[in-house]
Design a protein that fits this description.
Layout (H helix, E strand, L loop, with lengths): L1 E4 L12 H18 L2 H4 L1 E4 L5 E6 L21 E7 L2 E9 L1 H5 L3 H28 L5 E4 L2 E4 L26 E3 L4 H12 L15 E4 L3 H12 L19 E4 L12 E5 L1 H6 L4 E14 L6 E11 L7 E5 L5 E2 L3
Parallel strand pairs: 1-12, 2-12, 8-14, 8-15, 9-10
Antiparallel strand pairs: 3-4, 5-13, 6-7, 9-11, 11-14, 12-13
Length: 331
């Protein structure tokens, strides 16, 4: 966080409040970052440019048996789909009136600083969660603004017809229609493990993270499916191979339902980071400045940051739910 204050602040009645308020804001941001799920779901990145381009390359052809003294075959690769992400500017402010200082309303002053910090952190968390859940469509509206929710291939992040830039494989799907169960978890996991690159080569996608909204019944079903050493849906004492394989993220900022039904997501956290699949781009860290409004004599605290989330490679994640328009899962 970057902090600055006007030259006239220290010489005023507000001078002694600057460092305590700054400490409250900084500690609030740091504490919330420890609880935030953004860093666990997105690829955190920074930039000094107005935008960043994320891309991928198609595969190189396989080695060939050329026989004794055979010539080297020539293979080629090309740039795949790309995605450009441009950070947006977010702002907010609060004020400490001169009357508060004169009347020693320090508790109220601290409360406003805490509310300011909460507002910044909540803005990031809500934005990131709504973007991810909104990936079922090509755009998502958050507040008064519409944001691009497509991946690099121009389709929504979650789509049943992701295309190949080389036409080396048919359409692929990472959105599925089914209610959560152990069998459905098995099926979606298998679908992700079958994802291929643009040339049809099998990728090493190994989902290890389950992301769900804060729904009690869904949490119970998910933890029963992945936490029991025995099959939770039968009484035959069959071994549950899903036990111990998953990191479960319950993200309260996600909408509880899509299509009026619960849903869940599976993600490969390593593939996500290796291929920069879901970038969250920070351009300017929270910058807070303090000065005095000459019209009201109030101490104004203004916060500004620039960041953006976007989607590059869809292959790291899949979504499944009863209310989704996706590929049907039969179990």
């Amino acid at each position: 966080m970057i902090f600055s204050k006007g030259s006239n602040v220290n010489d005023s009645i507000f001078g002694k409040s600057q460092e305590p308020i700054r400490a409250i804001i900084e500690q609030g941001v740091e504490a919330f970052e420890q609880m935030s799920q953004i860093k666990n779901i997105y690829c955190m990145d920074t930039t000094k440019n107005f935008a960043e381009k994320y891309t991928q390359e198609t595969s190189l052809g396989n080695f060939e048996n050329v026989g004794e003294n055979g010539a080297y075959p020539k293979s080629s690769m090309q740039e795949g789909y790309s995605k450009t992400i441009e950070p947006f500017t977010f702002k907010n402010s609060f004020e400490v009136t001169q009357e508060m200082m004169e009347d020693a309303k320090h508790g109220k002053i601290k409360s406003r600083a805490n509310i300011f910090t909460t507002s910044y952190n909540r803005t990031r968390e809500v934005y990131a969660a709504q973007m991810l859940a909104g990936g079922v469509a090509s755009a998502v509206t958050i507040g008064k603004h519409k944001y691009d929710a497509t991946s690099a291939d121009g389709k929504p992040l979650f789509s049943k017809n992701h295309t190949s830039i080389t036409k080396g494989t048919g359409d692929q799907s990472n959105i599925f229609t089914a209610a959560f169960s152990t069998d459905v978890l098995d099926a979606v996991q298998e679908k992700m493990q079958d994802f291929t690159d643009d040339d049809g080569n099998l990728l090493n996608v190994a989902p290890d993270t389950i992301i769900i909204p804060n729904i009690g019944s869904l949490k119970r079903a998910v933890f029963a499916a992945v936490g029991s050493e025995l099959d939770p849906e039968t009484g035959n004492n069959a071994m549950n191979f899903q036990a111990g394989l998953w990191n479960v993220i319950v993200w309260p900022y996600l909408p509880k339902a899509i299509g009026n039904k619960p849903y869940f997501m599976l993600m490969d956290s390593k593939f996500k980071d290796d291929y920069m699949c879901l970038p969250f781009l920070d351009r300017v860290a929270l910058t807070v400045k303090s000065d005095i409004d000459p019209n009201t004599d109030a101490n104004i605290w203004r916060g500004r940051a620039r960041f953006a989330a976007g989607f590059n490679n869809w292959r790291c994640i899949a979504m499944c739910g009863e209310g989704l328009t996706g590929t049907a899962i039969s179990v």
